[in-house]
Amino acid sequence: MTSHPLKFHAVVVGGGLVGKTAALAFAQSGLRTALIASRAAGLPPGAAFDSRIYALSSSSQTLLERLRVWQALDRARLGPVFDMRVFGDAHAELHFSAFQASVPQLAWIVESSLIEQSLDTALRFQPSLSWFESRAQGMTVEADAAHVALASGEMLETDLIVGADGAHSWVRAQMGAKMTRRDYRQTGIVANFKTQRPHGETAYQWFRDSEIIALLPLPGDHVSLVWSARTEHADELVALDPAQLAAQVETATQNMLGTLDCVTPAQGFPLGLQTVDKLVAPRVALVGDAAHLIHPLAGQGMNLGLRDVAALADVIANKESFRDLGDPILLRRYERARREDIQKLMFATDGLQRLFSVPGTLARAVRNTGMAFVGAQPLVKRWLVSAALG
């Protein structure tokens, strides 16, 4: 172990998109920053697209532009969403249009590895950033500083620890936050397909049999599947060969895009709702999935995490000169700034998931009538688009 700790303003634990974005934001503002994370893995050999994709809102785009990451992305691999069609389970339909909402696009469909590799490149050019490809294994918090011990032997001293280490956050456990999880008993299945018919930069979503299927537009004639399926059904889907899976998706999506050709293996991840009783503790703040986990039906999980980063960075940038980054008053400002946004999105996604899980003719009639009502209200639809854009 090092005899003297290495000193930083902030230590970010966790190397997903949220953690790396946070580290880059801090480093670009001149803060001595440590990132404890692995490098981006990149695409498997021969893969056309990453199975892990995100629908990024305008707020996420703005943050990445501010950090000069968005400008470095390969534009040929970005998929704009100009329209979205949502189908209920009894003929109701909603249509959202970027043109009608007077916005450039509803979202961008972006591969996880594409953003992460651009973040890695940007991080390598930050003189105030130190990158540790190790594992945090000890954490202590004192009045004047916090310490993180690494498995490689280094000891890091810092004003602030940022937990961006995902749904099973080690930092969250160390800070003593209470996590509550409700399992949806669903698995999210992701895979990419080549389509027979053009998608027209339109995202499609179907609610059927208590499950939710989405096809999101990728560049050219490709789409990304996100199928929130009951766990036992999801196990069956993942076990199918590519041709069988494509046939199942064609049927579930009513052949909207014609014949499908599966181009990446299906992967599954469990779905649940996670909440924490606090986002901050002395010298510690949580961001991203470490702070909240929501259903992917609205595609807003990553946007919510990136808004955490933007809020924390703004609070730090506007702090009084006499406060350090771990000041409890400063961290409570961050927590207050994020509370309403997180709670509203959790309520909305969980409510929709519950609504479409209720069996029976009456429940089906009520929810589809509600969808039809929303579809006939241009002002309501514009408000929903505005909320989704962040």
N-end to C-end Cα span: 44 Å
The CATH architecture assignment turns out to be 3-Layer(bba) Sandwich
- What would you call the shape? globular
Biggest sheet: strands, sense, closure? 8 strands, mixed
- In CATH, what is the homologous superfamily? FAD/NAD(P)-binding domain
Alpha plus pi helix count? 11
CATH class: Alpha Beta
- Uncertain stretches: none
Average pLDDT for all residues = 91
Strand proportion, as a percent range, falls in 25-35%
Rg from C-alpha positions? 22 Å
**Tally of domains:** 1
- Kindly identify the CATH topology: FAD/NAD(P)-binding domain
E-strand count = 19
Question: Into which percent range does the helicity of residues fall?
Answer: 25-40%
Cofactor: FAD
Protein name: 2-octaprenyl-3-methyl-6-methoxy-1,4-benzoquinol hydroxylase
Pathway: Cofactor biosynthesis; ubiquinone biosynthesis
Family: Belongs to the UbiH/COQ6 family.
What does this structure look like?
The chain is of the alpha+beta class. The protein has one domain: FAD/NAD(P)-binding domain (3-Layer(bba) Sandwich), CATH 3.50.50. It has 11 helices and 19 strands. The chain has helices spanning 17-28, 58-66, 98-101, 112-124, 170-175, 231-239, 242-252, 301-317, 328-355, 361-375, 378-389; strands at residues 6-13, 33-36, 53-56, 79-81, 83-87, 93-97, 107-111, 129-132, 136-141, 146-150, 155-163, 179-195, 202-208, 211-218, 222-230, 260-262, 267-276, 280-281, 284-286. β13 (202-208) and β14 (211-218) form a beta hairpin. The longest helix has 28 residues, at 328-355.
